[in-house]
Amino acid sequence: MAEKLKLIKSNQLYDEALEVIPGAILGIRRPYNFVPGEYPIFFEKAEGGRVTDVDGNEYVDMLCAYGPIIIGHKEKEIDDAVIEKIQNDGFCFSLTQPIQNKLAEKLIELIPSAEQCLFLKTGSDATSTAIRIARAYTNRIKVARCGYHGWHDWCVEVKEGVPQKLWEDVHGFHYNKLDELEALMKEHGAEMAAIIITPVGHPLAFPVEEPKPGFLEGVKKIAEKYGTVLIFDEIRSGFRFSLGGAQEYYGVTPHLSVFGKAMANGYPISAVVGKKEIMEVAKDRVFISSTFFPNSLEQVAALKTIEIMERDDILGQIRKKGTDFCNKIVKIIEESGIPCELSGAPLMPFISFPKDEKKLYKKLRVEFYTQVIRRGVFLQPYHHGYIAHRHTEKDIEQAANAIKEALDVLKEMM
Q1: Domain containing 336 — which CATH number?
Q2: What is this structure's pTM?
Q3: What integer best gives the mean pLDDT of the chain?
Q4: Of 16, 94, 124, 365, which residue is least crowded by CB atoms under 10 Å?
Q5: Which residues neighbour 102 within 8 Å (Cβ) at sequence distance 6 or greater?
């Protein structure tokens, strides 16, 4: 049995933070989203495919900052390009720097749906901008959504503090359930401005789903039947399934798309891209502005990240590492006999526990992720993981062994 981690500094910092920050930490990083008392609360540093907490415990980082770290932590070539920009030119001006155009041209070259681009900071910025553009373009209000699209008023999961009138025109449907979307559109199609969907399904705490044959094609057909703007939320899948996103990988091109996370290997940038005719409403009909949207450091990081990914076949190597890892995990799970499953292979692996009548799955999940973190592998009980380029064979082996040993512990609970 692996020993419980020493988390003295993490807990001290958490208590201090509670006094000055509501909840100490924002949202999904709060302790209750992991295993309270078992997981660190503060990280100190990271390099390559590993992170170290404030107590000196080191982990194989398989959460990758919830997705942005596609190459690795402290990637020198990217950081050097950013530092050079700071030292030579500066980065926050009253006007935009020319590198904006270079990045836009690159995205248009890579992404099937991209004819024009807008740059923002976060995924929530991007999805909310895309919805605003779609509503202006169609002169409609209603939205059909499938997936997690951020924390802004129209889509936030927790409705406290948000007037109903700000989200009452947004209607949800489930991934791979084309009949649900068809029913929504029969009722609201004439008023539906947009259908926004994650092209890969990743509902919180549930298995990751790839599209069933014809699903994405069917969504697009329905959107075009009703004159509705189809938006792919590629914040997670973009620059991971392929450089052109899941839309390129699956061969279905939406009208608008949003990208972020892996695009700049951790630097805060997102993008809305799409057909020129639709994007043009942002020229004079829709207002989009921020003091920090034009900052050039993130644009430098994005261009350098994409350059490295193209030059070194980063995604090909990640897919191979992910395939090797997931093949091992499938075999380990089969041999364990524990009721759990691996989904999201090979790029977004997630081990989840299906519900049972006795609710044993909750105890199994808590114990499994307790044993994994004690063995120095950082995963999330309710969120899929990621494979990064800098994950070494040693990292992958440690993660696989940790999962095997954790499942062995669970056998005692069956």
Answers
A1: 3.90.1150.10
A2: 0.97
A3: 97
A4: 94
A5: 299, 303
